[in-house]
C-alpha cells in the first residue's frame, strides 16, 4: 500500500520463508531541507520506545507495530527501509469501506465495536506512558491481524510527537478542534497531544457506528460542515451523536429478554454513547484520555464486552460458528468445527449454555449439562479457531412451558432464584447449570441431544437476510417495492421480476414447457393484512423450529375455486376451500408447476381459454417426512407441515407439501395466467432427460416417490383435493 510518506511492500525471507512487510521511505525534494530526515527519525525513535520491554520486564503492547530491522541509506540517496511484522488483514478503513459497499448494509455489532475501541485505547495508553503521542489516529493507520483472530495493530508513527513538540502533520477529517485551530494560528504550545489522540479515537468510533469513512463525511447540516470537529464546536457532542449518518439509534440500558418488559428496539447502548461523548468533547480540558477506558471496558457490568444482553447483535443461526458478533449470555451451543475437547460435552449433539462473556471477546465460558459444576473456556475466533457452533433453538416443551421469553437462549427469570440449585432438574429435558442470584437469572441447559438441521435449501428457497438483530423482533414488513396504489392485483411490468417467476414456472426439469405454454399475465398480490398474518406465522415458526422458517416458493392450483376469492379472503388459504387429499384435509403445494397444472383453475382471459395457478410463499417450518408414514393425515406434534413425493405421467417427480389449520403459513404471492400455445406457435424442443426435482425443505431426508397413478382411490382423492 501507499501512504503520505511511504510505500509498503510484502516480502519473504529467502532463508526462512517468513513473510514480512517492508516500509520504503524515499525523500521528497519538494519539502523543506531536513524535513524528510525528521520524519524518518521521528518514527524510528517512537517505535523503538514502544518496542522496548518495561522496567518490570513486561512485554510490549501487542497492539502496536513492531520494527524488526531498519536501514538508512546515505544522504545522497536519501531513503530508508524498515522491516516490520506482516499483518495480513489490511486496514480498518478498508474493512469499513468494504462493509459499506455491500447491500444490504449490515451495521457492526456492539461487542465488536467495543472490542476494537478497547484495543486501540490500550495501544494509545501504552504509547502515552512511554512519552509518545501518535497525533494521526485514524482507521487508515489501524491494521487488522486476521491470523490473530482480527486483532488490531496501531501503526504509522511518522507524525508522532513527544511532550512539548510541535505538530508535524495530521489528517483534517480526524483532527480535534484545538488541533485545527493550532494549524491555522501556527501556535501548538497549548496542545495536549494525548487529548488530540482521544479525539482521533472518537472519530474512529463514529466511523464504526456509521459504517462510513470520515474522508467521505457530510454532516447533513445546513451549514455544510465537513469535519466532526466543526460539528462538535458548533453544537457540542450531542450534535455529533445525533448525526443522521449513524446507522442504528441509541437505546437506553435494557435487560432485553431477561425482563418481562423487554424492548424489541434495535440500537446501540448508552454505554457506547457515553464512550463516544467522553472522546468527542470539543473542550480538550474535559475530554477523557484513552487510558480512562480500558479498565471500565473490561470490568464494568454494563460494558458492551461483558453485558448480559445487547440489542445490536447478529442473529445466532443454528449450525454456524459462535463469534463475538452473535453471542449473548445463555446462548445455546454445540461443539464446533475446531472442537478439541473430547467428550467433556457429553458427546455429539449435546447442548451447552454460555454462562460468561470474556472482555477479550475471542473466548467464552460454557457449562455442559453432563457436568454442571465445571466451567470450560472456548475459543470463538482466537487464532482463527472456532470451537463452538450455535446450537438449536429448543422447542418450548424442552423447558416445560416455563417463562423463557426467548427460546434461543437457556435463560429463565425468577424473583426467587434461591429455590433453585446447580444440577437441579427442572423438567425431564432440562437442568440448571448456573445461577445469578443478584440478577434473578437461572441458566438452563437441555439434557436432550439434538443435531441441528441443515440450512441448505433448494433454488426455490427464499433466503433470509444475512444478518438481522436478535429477537424479540417485529414481523418483517411488506416489501417496499409494492405499488399499493395499483390495488390488490398489480400487473408485473418489471423485467427482472418477470424473469424470476418465469424461471421457476418454466423450470427445465419439471416446469411447464416454454415451447408449449405461454404466460399471458403475471400479477403480484399486494394484500397487507395477508402479509402481516404470514409474517407473524414466520416469527412463530422460527421460535419453534431452531430459529429456521424454512421458507420456500411453491406452486398451488385452486381447481374450481377462483384465485381472486382466496386472495381477497381475510385468511387466504382458508380450510373451507380445502378438500381431502392423500394426506388429509389441507392446503397442498408443489415444487413443480407441471404438477400444480393438474389442479389449475380455468378462466377466460381476453377472449382466450387460459389457466391460472398461484406461486406462493410457504413457511414449511419443521417438515415431517411421509416416507415411512404414508397413512398420516396430520403432522406430528411440534411439526408444521408434511412432505411427500408425487410422480407425474412423464416420470418427473415433484416434492409436495401440505399445511393444515395454520393457513397463514402460506401467502399467495403471484397469480400466473397462462395458455396452451396454438399449433403454429409451438417450437418442438429435443427430449430432455428428466430427473427428480430438488427437495425444497432442506432439513429432512428425500421421501420415496409416491406414484399416484398406481392406486385409483388415490387418484380420485387427489382429483378432489385443492392443490
From TrEMBL:
GO annotations of cellular component type: nucleus
GO molecular function terms listed in the Swiss-Prot or TrEMBL record: ATP binding; metal ion binding; NAD+ poly-ADP-ribosyltransferase activity; NAD+-protein mono-ADP-ribosyltransferase activity; protein kinase activity; ubiquitin-protein transferase activity
Domain PARP catalytic as annotated: residue spans: 476-683
PROSITE patterns according to UniProt: MIB_HERC2, PARP_CATALYTIC, PROTEIN_KINASE_DOM, PROTEIN_KINASE_ST
GO biological process, one term: protein ubiquitination
Transmembrane segments: none
E.C. number(s) listed in UniProt: 2.4.2.-
Keyword field: Glycosyltransferase, NAD, Transferase
Family matches, as Pfam families: PARP (PF00644), Pkinase (PF00069)
Chain ranges of the MIB/HERC2 domain: 319-394
SUPFAM superfamilies in UniProt: ADP-ribosylation, Mib/herc2 domain-like, Protein kinase-like (PK-like)
Domain Protein kinase: residue ranges: 1-306
Domain of life: Eukaryota
Matching InterPro entries: ARTD-AVP, Kinase-like_dom_sf, Mib_Herc2, Mib_Herc2_sf, Poly(ADP-ribose)pol_cat_dom, Prot_kinase_dom, Ser/Thr_kinase_AS
Name of the protein this chain belongs to: Poly [ADP-ribose] polymerase
Source organism (scientific name): Helicotheca tamesis
Amino acid at each position: 500500500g501507499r501512504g503520505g510518506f511511504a510505500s509498503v511492500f510484502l516480502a519473504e525471507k529467502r532463508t526462512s520463508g517468513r513473510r514480512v512487510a517492508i516500509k520504503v521511505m524515499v525523500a521528497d525534494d519538494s519539502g523543506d531541507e531536513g524535513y524528510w530526515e525528521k520524519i524518518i527519525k521521528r518514527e524510528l525513535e517512537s517505535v523503538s520506545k514502544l518496542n522496548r520491554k518495561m522496567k518490570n520486564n513486561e512485554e510490549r503492547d501487542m497492539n502496536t507495530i513492531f520494527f524488526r530491522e531498519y536501514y538508512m541509506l546515505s544522504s545522497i540517496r536519501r531513503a530508508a527501509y524498515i522491516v516490520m511484522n506482516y499483518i495480513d488483514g489490511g486496514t480498518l478503513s478498508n474493512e469499513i469501506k468494504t462493509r459499506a459497499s455491500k447491500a444490504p448494509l449490515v451495521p457492526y455489532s456492539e461487542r465488536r465495536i467495543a472490542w476494537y475501541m478497547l484495543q486501540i485505547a490500550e495501544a494509545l495508553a501504552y504509547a502515552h506512558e512511554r512519552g509518545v503521542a501518535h497525533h494521526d489516529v485514524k482507521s487508515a493507520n489501524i491494521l487488522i491481524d486476521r491470523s490473530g483472530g482480527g486483532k488490531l495493530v496501531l501503526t504509522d508513527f511518522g507524525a508522532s510527537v513527544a511532550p512539548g513538540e510541535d505538530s508535524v502533520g495530521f489528517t483534517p477529517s480526524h483532527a480535534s478542534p484545538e488541533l485545527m485551530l493550532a494549524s491555522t494560528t501556527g501556535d501548538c504550545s497549548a496542545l495536549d497531544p494525548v487529548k488530540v489522540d482521544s479525539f482521533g479515537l472518537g472519530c474512529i468510533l463514529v466511523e464504526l457506528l456509521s459504517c462510513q469513512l470520515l474522508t467521505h463525511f457530510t454532516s447533513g447540516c445546513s451549514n455544510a460542515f465537513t469535519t466532526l470537529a466543526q460539528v462538535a464546536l458548533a453544537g457540542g457532542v450531542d450534535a455529533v451523536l445525533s448525526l443522521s449518518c449513524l446507522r442504528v439509534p441509541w437505546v437506553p440500558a435494557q435487560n432485553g429478554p431477561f425482563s418481562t418488559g423487554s424492548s424489541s428496539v434495535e440500537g446501540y447502548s448508552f454505554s457506547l454513547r457515553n464512550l463516544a461523548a467522553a472522546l468527542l468533547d470539543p473542550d480538550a480540558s474535559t475530554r477523557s484520555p484513552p487510558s480512562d477506558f480500558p479498565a471500565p471496558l473490561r470490568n464494568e457490568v454494563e460494558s458492551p464486552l461483558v453485558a448480559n444482553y445487547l440489542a445490536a447483535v447478529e442473529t445466532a443461526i443454528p449450525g454456524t460458528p459462535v463469534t463475538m458478533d452473535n453471542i449473548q449470555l445463555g446462548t445455546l451451543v454445540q461443539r464446533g468445527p475446531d472442537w478439541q475437547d473430547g467428550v467433556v460435552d457429553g458427546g455429539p449433539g449435546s447442548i451447552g449454555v454460555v454462562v460468561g462473556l470474556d472482555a477479550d471477546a475471542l473466548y467464552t465460558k460454557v457449562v455442559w449439562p453432563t457436568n454442571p459444576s465445571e466451567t470450560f473456556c472456548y475459543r470463538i475466533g482466537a487464532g482463527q479457531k472456532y470451537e463452538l457452533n450455535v446450537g438449536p433453538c429448543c422447542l418450548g416443551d424442552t423447558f416445560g412451558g416455563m417463562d423463557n421469553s426467548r427460546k434461543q437462549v437457556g435463560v429463565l427469570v425468577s424473583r426467587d432464584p434461591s429455590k433453585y440449585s446447580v444440577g437441579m432438574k427442572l423438567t425431564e429435558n432440562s437442568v440448571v447449570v448456573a445461577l445469578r442470584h443478584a440478577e434473578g437469572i437461572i441458566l438452563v441447559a437441555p439434557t436432550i441431544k439434538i443435531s441441528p438441521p441443515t440450512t441448505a435449501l433448494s433454488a426455490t428457497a427464499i433466503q433470509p437476510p444475512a444478518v438481522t438483530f436478535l429477537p424479540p423482533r417485529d414481523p418483517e414488513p411488506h416489501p417496499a417495492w409494492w405499488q399499493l396504489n395499483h390495488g390488490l392485483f398489480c400487473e408485473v411490468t418489471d423485467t427482472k421480476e418477470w424473469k424470476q417467476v418465469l424461471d421457476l414456472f418454466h423450470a427445465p426439469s419439471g416446469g411447464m414447457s416454454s415451447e408449449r405454454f405461454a404466460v399471458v399475465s403475471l400479477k403480484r398480490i399486494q394484500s397487507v393484512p395477508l402479509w402481516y398474518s404470514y409474517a407473524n406465522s414466520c416469527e412463530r415458526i422460527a421460535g419453534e423450529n431452531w430459529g429456521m422458517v424454512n421458507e420456500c416458493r411453491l406452486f398451488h392450483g385452486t381447481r374450481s375455486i377462483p384465485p381472486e376469492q382466496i386472495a381477497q379472503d381475510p385468511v387466504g388459504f382458508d380450510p373451507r376451500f380445502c378438500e381431502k387429499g392423500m394426506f388429509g384435509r389441507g392446503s397442498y403445494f408443489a415444487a413443480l408447476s407441471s404438477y400444480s397444472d393438474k389442479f389449475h383453475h380455468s378462466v377466460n382471459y381476453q377472449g382466450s381459454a387460459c389457466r391460472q395457478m398461484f406461486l406462493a410463499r410457504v413457511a414449511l417450518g419443521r417438515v415431517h417426512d411421509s416416507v415411512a408414514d404414508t397413512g398420516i393425515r396430520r403432522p406430528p406434534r411440534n411439526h408444521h407441515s408434511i412432505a411427500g413425493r408425487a410422480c407425474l405421467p412423464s416420470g418427473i417427480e415433484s416434492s409436495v407439501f401440505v399445511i393444515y389449520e395454520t393457513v397463514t403459513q402460506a401467502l399467495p404471492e403471484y397469480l400466473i395466467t397462462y395458455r396452451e400455445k396454438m399449433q403454429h406457435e409451438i417450437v418442438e424442443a429435443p427430449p430432455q432427460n428428466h430427473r427428480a426435482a430438488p427437495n425444497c425443505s432442506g432439513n429432512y431426508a428425500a421421501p420415496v416417490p409416491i406414484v399416484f397413478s398406481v392406486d385409483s382411490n388415490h387418484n380420485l382423492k387427489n382429483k378432489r383435493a385443492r392443490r
